[in-house]
Each structure stands twice: as structure tokens, then as C-alpha cells.
Amino acid sequence: MNSAVFLTLVGSLLLFAGISCEETPRQAVAEKKSSVPLTDYEKGLELIAKNDCLSCHQVEQKSIGPSYRAIALKYDSTEENLQSLASKIQKGGTGVWGTIPMTPHPQLSAEDARMLVRYIFSLKKPS
Fold this sequence. Notes:
By secondary structure, this protein is an all-alpha fold. The chain has 2 domains: 1-36, no CATH class; 39-127, Orthogonal Bundle (Cytochrome Bc1 Complex, Chain D, domain 2), CATH 1.10.760.10. 54% of the residues lie in helices and 0% in strands.
């Protein structure tokens, strides 16, 4: 495909998507994303991406720590468990899943820690 045809196709796609040629796709996505409220699931994913969570946890498989799905299946989705797990994210802990400690994350607000737990609890649903 020659470059003129390619540029025409890209321009058409950008216009179809409502993105002007003056803004980059990244800017357009950021603007559209900020105008649409995120779900608990999306907020949880965003927090996981911003923090070091994936260095010890994976969604489906055990890594250094338990998988998110294993955590979700172990705990009922109650307010008490939500608070307890959010606190463990912030303060750290050991003993529930073996001898490797959960490192503390004091930089996370209580609400952000709760959002991470809500994301984990959302994994109880069949995928």
C-alpha cells in the first residue's frame, strides 16, 4: 500500500472516530476517557497499572503472591472483608498465603486500596 493511500485511510478513520487531525490519538483518548466515568473494575485496573501490584500478583496464576482470582474466591464480598483486605494492602501482612510477606503500600489512600479490593472481588464472576 502506498503512503498516500495509507494516510487517506488513517485520516478517514480519525474523522470517523471523531478525532481531529490537530490532536494526537493519545490526547483524544485521554479527553474521552476523562469525560466518561470509570467503573470500579477499570479504576482497579488503572491502580494496578500505576503501582507495583503485578510484580507479585497475576490475575489467574500464582506468582510471588496469590492470584487475584484465588483471593477473590477465598473471601466473601463483604464490607468486613473489603476493609480488612484494603488495610492489608496499605499495611502489609504475612501468614495467610504462606511465609512471603505482603509488602505495605502506605502511599495508597484508603479509598484506592478499597478500589483495588473491589476489582479483585469482581473476579469472582465467571470469565
